[in-house]
Amino acid sequence: MSSFAAQLGPLRKARGLSLGAVGRLIGMAAPNLSVALSGKQDVRGSTLEAIATALDAEWVLVPREHLAEVQRTVSGKATGPDRAAPTSVDLLLGESDA
């Protein structure tokens, strides 16, 4: 998965926010935010959380063993359970629509 900073750009654009607008939302000057996200300085977790919140997103850690599936899900390419299909309990009780 790409870095937090790399994910930030497309999400900012999707939300219609400039880096300056995000900076204003979190109380950080755009140049300082740009430097922080460049990877040239350490960024506090609370700053990353504030950026995510400003973008109406969540900052989460994904265990590596689940990373590929999370990437597929986020990209919209994952296949998930068919929620419309009857469950085994429905079938057992004869409550399916099938």
UniProtKB/TrEMBL annotation:
What the entry lists under PROSITE patterns is as follows: HTH_CROC1 (PS50943)
Q: Which InterPro entries match?
A: Cro/C1-type_HTH, Lambda_DNA-bd_dom_sf
Residue segments, region Disordered: 72-98
Q: Where does the record place the HTH cro/C1-type domain?
A: 11-62
- Protein's recorded name: Helix-turn-helix domain-containing protein
Which species is listed as the source?
Answer: Cupriavidus campinensis
